[in-house]
């Protein structure tokens, strides 16, 4: 997360951001420009969105990636890398999601601390959120926080063969998560690389 661009009210931010060609996050009056990620970062996001979309096809859940924001009351507007919301099978003209069930952040060197601390702290304020996953596209560390009656349970899935997401009853091969990135799963002979 970079330095704040300016201070403004929540209503002013929503009006201003609707006119912008870039993504900006908002937290308690401060506006932060979102920077682009690496090809590796983007590939993991697309792998996740594609696989989760296939898994959720035909259900009342939808997956969104990068350009759809989450609104946390009048306090914050954030752009998760990948999120799933349930209860509405067809997407409409919503500008922000307020009820994500699952949020996944793909870490990059500049956002790791922010995603693990501040962003997770904000996301925990969402009553709908059941799971929060952090995936490091370089080190391949995978941490999944699941809400339980006793609080948030951390499961370190680094080195596991599958990414287990209980909130949407999904088990996704880790090879699919990291497909197409350096050191990732090899492309099968005869397939399109």
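^ Assign residues to that structure.
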């Amino acid at each position: 997360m970079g330095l704040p661009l300016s201070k403004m009210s929540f209503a002013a931010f929503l009006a201003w951001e609707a006119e912008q060609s870039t993504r900006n996050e908002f937290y308690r009056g401060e506006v932060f420009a979102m920077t682009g990620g690496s090809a590796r970062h983007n590939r993991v996001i697309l792998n996740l969105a594609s696989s989760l979309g296939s898994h959720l096809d035909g259900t009342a859940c939808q997956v969104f990636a990068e350009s759809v924001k989450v609104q946390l009351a009048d306090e914050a507007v954030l752009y998760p890398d990948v999120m799933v919301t349930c209860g509405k099978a067809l997407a409409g003209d919503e500008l922000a999601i307020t009820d994500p069930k699952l949020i996944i952040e793909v870490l990059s060197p500049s956002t790791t601390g922010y995603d693990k601390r501040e962003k997770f702290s904000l996301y925990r304020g969402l009553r709908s959120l059941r799971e929060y996953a952090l995936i490091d596209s370089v080190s391949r560390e995978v941490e999944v926080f699941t809400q339980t009656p006793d609080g948030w349970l951390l499961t370190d899935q680094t080195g596991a063969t599958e990414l287990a997401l209980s909130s949407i009853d999904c088990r996704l091969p880790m090879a699919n998560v990291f497909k197409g990135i350096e050191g990732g799963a090899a492309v099968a002979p005869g397939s399109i690389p």
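The chain is about 20% helix and 35% strand.
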